[in-house]
Write a structure and sequence with these properties.
There is one protein chain. By secondary structure, this protein is mostly beta strands. It has a single domain, classed as Porin (Beta Barrel), CATH 2.40.160.20. The protein is built from one helix and ten strands. An eight-stranded antiparallel β-barrel has the order 1-2-3-4-5-8-9-10. It has a two-stranded antiparallel sheet with strand order 6-7. It starts with a helix and ends in a 16-residue tail after the last strand. The relative contact order is 0.20.
Length: 217
Amino acid sequence: MQKPLVLTTAALMLSLLTHAQAQSGLAFDYVHIHAPAMLNIGSGSGMGGSVFFYAPLPKDNLGLDISIDIAGGHTTYAYYPFNPSVGGSSTLVSVKRPFVYSALPVHVVYSHSYRQLRLFAGAGLFFSHLSMDEAGGHGWSMGSTCNTIGLSFKAGFQLLQHVVLSGEFRPVSADVSKTDPYQPNSYKISNQVSLKLGYAFGKIRPTKHSSPKHSNS
């Protein structure tokens, strides 16, 4: 991630933590990247962790959810190696490619509390950085880094004020920069899914929920 973005995010998070109702926490992450296999990064998965922050907004039931994620794993891409023989055919080769993935998702979520359970769902934006070893073949190559930005949707629940389980789905993303602007094959990520299980420190005020109605006798 770019240094100015990280510093700006850190300042924002520190500001949120000064709020009496803000929460911070740690989570275990599972990340799945879906992408074309041919001459691309291929689909794969990784595991890692994240630091997350949540702060209620002045508007009832709305909150700001921010996290810093990092994960490592591998994808599998495929290509046909060059065959110098006249009329010869090549066999499709599949290769695993290790990656390090980091992301900064920011969501505005709507929460609904019921006793010791808080349900939430929302949408926002994410910025991600994908780092891999450079891959290349006869007449083509793929760079080692790629930065993307896109839409993200989040939903989950918080149990007993502390245990948080959530999922994030990122169906739309666009490359904003890559290692070599002249490389013939750029990254094409179809979508990303992230599952998180974490523990939140501190307590937040319960969100409003409808009270049961009683009939007049």
